[in-house]
Design a protein that fits this description.
The chain has one helix and eight strands, in the order H-E-E-E-E-E-E-E-E. It is α/β, with parallel strands linked by helices and about 120 residues long. The longest helix has 21 residues.
């Protein structure tokens, strides 16, 4: 086997291993602590999807507006840390919830839009 072919095969094997490791999920090393745990809630068709999400404490939550109208994400409890600015199409709002509990939220522009995040203790 020639030297060029051997290097090419090794590079392909390394690429395959890296791709497998990236797809392996929790066993793979996160790129940064900020992105260690993340979950996304999509805003579309005047609804939050999923409407209820259960995550571990410390998870980075991101709401992404894929709707044609602006929306907000506002906690229903007075002490809630959830409070986004108006999000236009394509904009996102991220928040890390460290304390276990149930967090209910709604869109202040369209109050019929509601959602819930359940934060569980990290194990």
């Amino acid at each position: 086997m020639g030297k060029k072919r051997s290097i090419g095969l090794r590079a392909a094997a390394i690429g395959a291993l890296l791709a497998f490791g990236a797809a392996a999920g929790p066993a793979s090393k996160p790129q940064s602590a900020e992105h260690a745990h993340a979950d996304k809630i999509v805003i579309d068709n005047f609804a939050f999807e999923p409407s209820t999400l259960t995550v571990s404490a410390g998870t980075v939550l991101t709401w992404l507006n894929e709707d044609d109208a602006p929306h907000t994400v506002v906690g229903t409890d007075p002490e809630s840390p959830i409070e986004s600015p108006p999000l236009d199409t394509g904009e996102r709002y991220s928040l890390t919830l460290e304390r276990p509990g149930t967090y209910r939220y709604f869109c202040s522009l369209h109050p019929h839009m509601t959602g819930t995040v359940i934060v569980e203790q990290r194990f």
